Amino acid sequence: MEFPPCPYRVIEECGGAYLMGGVGASIWYGVKGLRNAPHTDGRFPWRAWRTSKFAGREVLRQAPKVGGGFAVWGLWFSTFDCSLIHMRGKEDVWNPIGAGALTGGVLAMRAGVKAMAKSALVGGCILALIEGVSIGFQRYSA
Predict the structure, then answer these.
(1) pLDDT, tens digit only, all 142 positions of the chain
(2) pTM, entire model
(3) Which of 61, 100, 113, 118 could potentially form a cystine with 127 if both were Cys, beta carbons 3.0 to 4.6 Å apart?
(4) Which of 71, 91, 92, 96 is nearest to 81 (CA)?
């Protein structure tokens, strides 16, 4: 898989993460808004408009927040990934694993050193699992 050069990759992945978080949150909070909307009488179709309006209001309120959180994660991850590629001089599976660990640590920095270490471990393990599954699929399909 060919990636764009690193300065552009950071911006591209940040935007892609914002879009992914925004779309996922729109679906999630749209359904949640429809379920939590006040019940309407089925005989009056104009009351269904109020239910969908309630769901749309929930999406407009929550989706940008979730998308922003995804964008911050994507920004840090791609920044660390590009930095590790530059420092190590090669692009292999260890760069995303290290970038995931560093991203988890940086995002938990405000909670203290203990939480930072736990989040770094979890981020590294999740990215190691993703990279392992990716390698498995590549070997299976080849």
Answers:
(1) 566 778 888 999 999 999 999 999 999 999 888 888 776 666 655 566 667 788 888 899 999 999 999 999 999 999 999 999 999 988 899 999 999 999 999 999 999 999 999 999 999 999 999 999 999 999 998 7
(2) 0.83
(3) 100
(4) 96
